[in-house]
Amino acid sequence: MGRRRHTNRRTWLGLCAGTAGATILAGCSSDEETTDDTDDTGTSDDGLLEFGSDSDGDWPMFGADLQNTGYQPDGDGPVDDVTVRWRLEGGDRFVSSPAIVDGIVYAGCRDGYLYAVDAETGEIEWATQLNQRVSSPPTVIDGVVYVSSHGVPDKIHALEADSGEQLWAEELGNSAHSPAPYGDVIYTYHSGWLIETDRTSGTSSVLFEGYSQTPTAPAIKDGVLFGGGRRSIVAHDLEQMERKWEFENENTEHMSNGTPAVVDGTLYTGSTDSKLYALDVESGEEKWTFETDDSISAGPSVADDTIYLPSRDGHVYAIDANSREQKWSVDYEFQLQQKPAVTESMIYFIDGKTLHGLDRSDGGVHWSFTPDKDETIGGTLSVADRVAYLPSRDHHLYALEEA
């Protein structure tokens, strides 16, 4: 895979102009308006992101955190039977997980709007039209919402979280995915390129290229970004600006249909060869694998030394990260293709048209919810403050609480 060091603005625009009409990029002008952000980078001493929320149990980005664990340890979602607290009707499908920060739900819709909704009442605080489909999960940090939109070309946007005012928008290319913030930069995959975008100005640079397929969101831990191409997982050192290692699947199967999770020195990712791979984050060497009966197209979630893995064989598996043994599994009718959400005592996952709430300890089903219309659920759910937020293809975002 090729690598580019910090590309300046002129070079970036030249790259875009040179590839107009190609599949990589289709135009790269930018709104250069800047924000009033402080100099705080939003990172702790060890490089981990601090979201600075005033409430427990937020879900500020896809996978809950930069490591894509899918785990919210500071609270629970609904445990017993659920009822609809409210539902937001959009002009098209909701197909990505919302972000929840300080009592506000931020959700993108294919109608082109990014919505900010009061988590308690369902009242719309603001709705900003981005003029392109919004089908990637938003990320919220330091009072700013970052989100990708999909059109010709795709864009990444920065909006004021309080007002919805657009601060800047940058044209990048096709196949934009969820933004991952680290320090003063946002990292995204676009059109086979790994892009860094300055959080304040929106100025973008190509870091690495040559990906034939990219994950929904990279995982970031201790200054290293983990992502992948079609048949490999790659670790990039963000401080040294170099590739640290690459793990290639000897079965030549896809490694990046899902999104990797990084916990306690191990990276977990699924593959279309039906295996869960556990890799050493320092060396990229394979530690062990766990095999299912069909391909794995969703990223695993990890909590307290247990890996929760959905498979297209219709099972959700709980795997002990230490013994590598299966703790339990539950069989469902549909192929499971969405990353689970995990809280203090529960795991939530989507089975085609139904959301299930299971006990983490034994897989016992506490409740199930199916939207009224006969539509598959649009994307991965999010959980905050004992409420589950469910995007649906029936043009609604559901907020589910205990009955």
From TrEMBL:
Residues 84-289, 312-401 form the Pyrrolo-quinoline quinone repeat domain. Residues 29-56 are annotated as: Disordered. It holds the Pfam family PQQ_2. InterPro entries: PQQ_b-propeller_rpt, PQQ_rpt_dom, Quinoprotein_ADH-like_sf, WD40/YVTN_repeat-like_dom_sf. SUPFAM superfamilies: Quinoprotein alcohol dehydrogenase-like (SSF50998). Residues 30-43 have a biased composition (Acidic residues). PANTHER family: CELL SURFACE PROTEIN, OUTER MEMBRANE PROTEIN ASSEMBLY FACTOR BAMB. This is Pyrrolo-quinoline quinone repeat domain-containing protein. It comes from Natrarchaeobius chitinivorans.
